[in-house]
Amino acid sequence: MENGKTYEAYLKSTHRLGRIVSVISLILLVGAPFAIGAVLGTQPDLGAVARSFLSVGLVWTVSSVVEFLVYTPMLGAGGSYLAFITGNLINMKVPCAMNAKELVNAKSGTAENEVIATLSIATSALVTILVLAAGVALLVPLQPILQNPVLAPAYANVVPALFGAMAYKYYRKDPKLAVIPLAAMVILFTLVPSLTSSTSFMIIPSGALAIGLSWLKYRRETKGAAGK
Fold it and tell me: Which residues, at least 6 apart from 10, have a Cβ–Cβ distance to it below 8 Å?
């Protein structure tokens, strides 16, 4: 009982601190252009900003809501605040949290998962900051190597290689379930190449397809177990 009260108190303090830091981060992000404009003696064109938001903001709004609904149960309260404030969820924070969760065999929604996810995401954020700081410090000395034409093809394939490696970790858990959404998206993007610029929005139908297939598999397995 005492542990339950302690955990509830922890969650309350986490939400309070997370909301405060989220508001501060939002103010800093939105206020940065206006602060720079004040120093330089100019201000952003709010009309152009509004038109730009309408062109891309609606797609990203839907994607953001989907990411919140999908990732929050996996990351817990503390991990979610850290991940959404520091960013880079899909290719850094979420894989780190899921790997740490699997290593200790923690279950979503438990206090153990809350602690593990928060620690793993915090570690990921700190490592990212250190690597970026080192990269900025070494940017000039490494510039001849980074701009070498021999390495240019590698840079063009970094993102596909990264996402392919991460996807394999999840695909191998249930290849039969993964192959249908993957094949459907490959065919769709092949037939309609213009959709490649809306990959975030396409998470919704591909995710819905995966969820629907999982539900059908669960129903089939449940009926099979009941029949026995």
Answer: 114
Contact residues for 102 (Cβ-Cβ < 8 A; gap 6+)? none
On whether the CB atoms of residues 208 and 172 are closer than 8 A, the answer is no
Contact 90, 70 (CB under 8 A): no
Classify residue 175 as left (phi > 0), alpha (psi -120 to 50) or beta. alpha
Residues 96-144 have pLDDT tens digits of: 888 888 888 888 778 888 889 899 999 999 998 898 899 888 888 888 8
Q: In the predicted model, what is the mean pLDDT of the chain?
A: 82
Look up residue 133 and give its amino acid.
A
First-to-last CA distance in the chain? 40
Reported as a single tens digit per residue, the pLDDT across 171-185 is 777 787 888 888 888
By three-state DSSP, how is residue 11 classified? Answer: helix
- Please count the other Cβ atoms lying within 10 Å of the Cβ belonging to residue 140: 8
